[in-house]
């Protein structure tokens, strides 16, 4: 949001400074484009008559005295040159001297950006017939106030004024966007009840229209998620209740069963267990889609979390060999510990199931580029490279690479292709990534990348 604020602020500032520059240029050229220059040139007739009269009555001494009186005038100067081109007074500006000695014409010289804005010359004669050249210089009004300093202070004052106004206006225009951003962030954290305040909805501009549409969208999403949550609860109840009754009936059937019927009853129990696990996985995936409340997240020590999962796995599979290589110094994640533990447990159990007897499941924990990498590798047969991406899709299995058996199911392997799919959804919900690949020395490896807390 700071980006749009800066852009609007700079736009205001740039527009204001361009307006200031254009105003100064227009003011400078105003006399040339209007009749103001004519109005300035017109009074020079009086200066010419007065200079010629003074020269004829008092000669050069009186004329020099008259010229010195212009030093007290802030915007007009007068100079007189004799027939040899020598000025009666010292300190004649170069532009005035060049204009006076030029023989091109007697037209006035107008320079709206220079110190000498208008220069006019005319011949005058003395009583004894000698000719002189009178030059009248009209100084630019801004030059009277020290033009460079005047422009510098004016530009600095304009910059400060427009910087303040631009800051206030930019804040005013981006305030609705910041408020909407906070609402969107709250929705991203799982608060679906958030709404744009009423005062923004009452606005008659695009911000007001966007606020109203946002609230309508948020209301529909909240109702949709509530309906999905209710559906998950209803499905869970409707599916689990028959399974519970089926288990009760199964146990009652065992009481009156014959020895040769036990094998079939065991098969029924196994299939019931598999169905219960399948329903659990499906409901878990559904909850991941609709229940991601980040308000329940907390700081998790990933190394300790892995050690707890490994301890549980070793308890369930005493013959399994799991080795943890922790090479990370900073292992804290901001995550849902229950979901993250379930995802890692699915991958580790899957690796334990498929690693060859007498081999281990190797887990490497590393910190690289502000990202925690968890690499879980088994020493099993691996999977064809063309089929790796499909393993993260629900209900995808490759029997040629991952042989299943009744024994493996009894050891806790669900075998429906949902474990890795659930793990992938959990990792992506934590803004991470899960990548499957075949290790160069054999076996399947899962590389999990999760962003670390700052």
From TrEMBL:
Q: How does it sit in the membrane?
A: Multi-pass membrane protein
Q: Where are the transmembrane segments?
A: 9-30, 150-173
Q: Which residues form the HAMP domain?
A: 171-226
* Enzyme Commission number, as recorded: 2.7.13.3
Task: Tell me what reaction this enzyme catalyses.
Answer: ATP + protein L-histidine = ADP + protein N-phospho-L-histidine
Annotated ranges, domain Histidine kinase: 234-454
Subcellular location field: Membrane
At the top level, the lineage of the source is Bacteria
Q: What class of enzyme is it?
A: transferase
Keywords linked to the UniProt accession? ATP-binding, Kinase, Membrane, Nucleotide-binding, Phosphoprotein, Transferase, Transmembrane, Transmembrane helix, Two-component regulatory system
Recorded hits in Pfam families, A to Z, give: HAMP, HATPase_c, HisKA
Q: Which InterPro entries match?
A: HAMP_dom (IPR003660), HATPase_C_sf (IPR036890), HATPase_dom (IPR003594), His_kinase_dom (IPR005467), HisK_dim/P_dom (IPR003661), HisK_dim/P_sf (IPR036097), Sig_transdc_His_kin-like_C (IPR004358), TCS_sensor_his_kinase (IPR050428)
Q: Which SMART domains match?
A: HAMP (SM00304), HATPase_c (SM00387), HisKA (SM00388)
Q: Name one GO molecular function term.
A: ATP binding
Q: What protein am I looking at?
A: histidine kinase
């Amino acid at each position: 949001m700071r980006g749009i604020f800066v852009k609007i602020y700079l736009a205001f500032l740039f527009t204001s400074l361009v307006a200031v520059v254009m105003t100064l240029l227009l003011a400078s050229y105003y006399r040339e484009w209007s009749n103001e220059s004519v109005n300035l040139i017109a009074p020079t007739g009086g200066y010419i008559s007065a200079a010629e009269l003074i020269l004829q009555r008092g000669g050069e001494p009186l004329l020099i005295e008259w010229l010195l009186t212009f030093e007290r005038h802030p915007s007009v100067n007068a100079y007189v040159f004799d027939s040899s081109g020598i000025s009666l007074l010292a300190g004649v500006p170069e532009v005035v001297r060049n204009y006076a000695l030029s023989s091109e014409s007697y037209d006035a010289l107008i320079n709206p950006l220079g110190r000498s804005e208008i220069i006019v010359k005319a011949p005058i004669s003395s009583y004894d017939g000698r000719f002189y050249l009178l030059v009248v210089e009209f100084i630019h009004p801004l030059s009277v106030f020290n033009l460079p300093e005047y422009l510098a202070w004016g530009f600095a004052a304009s910059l400060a004024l427009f910087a303040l106004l631009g800051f206030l206006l930019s804040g005013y225009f981006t305030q609705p966007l910041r408020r909407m951003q906070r609402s969107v962030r709250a929705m991203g954290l799982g608060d679906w009840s958030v709404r744009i305040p009423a005062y923004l909805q009452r606005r008659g501009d695009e911000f007001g229209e966007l606020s109203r549409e946002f609230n309508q969208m948020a209301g529909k999403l909240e109702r949709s998620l509530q309906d999905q949550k209710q559906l998950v609860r209803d499905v869970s109840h409707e599916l689990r209740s028959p399974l519970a009754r089926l288990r009760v009936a199964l146990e009652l059937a065992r009481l009156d069963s014959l020895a040769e019927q036990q094998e079939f009853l065991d098969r029924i129990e196994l299939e019931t267990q598999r169905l219960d696990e399948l329903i659990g996985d499906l409901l878990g995936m559904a909850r991941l889609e609709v229940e991601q409340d980040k308000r329940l997240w907390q700081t998790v020590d990933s190394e300790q979390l892995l050690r707890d999962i490994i301890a549980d796995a070793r308890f369930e599979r005493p013959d399994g060999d799991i080795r943890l290589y922790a090479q990370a110094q900073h292992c804290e994640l901001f995550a849902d510990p229950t979901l993250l533990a379930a995802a890692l447990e699915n991958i580790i159990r899957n690796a334990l199931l498929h690693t060859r007897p007498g081999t281990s499941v190797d887990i490497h924990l590393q910190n690289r580029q502000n990202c925690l990498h968890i690499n879980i590798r088994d020493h099993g047969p691996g999977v064809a490279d063309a089929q790796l991406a499909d393993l993260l899709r629900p209900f995808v299995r490759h029997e040629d690479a991952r042989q299943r058996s009744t024994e493996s199911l009894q050891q806790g392997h669900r075998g429906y292709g949902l474990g890795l799919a659930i793990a992938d959804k959990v990792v992506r919900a934590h803004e991470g990534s899960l990548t499957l690949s075949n290790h160069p020395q054999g076996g399947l490896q899962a590389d999990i990348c999760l962003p670390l807390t700052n």
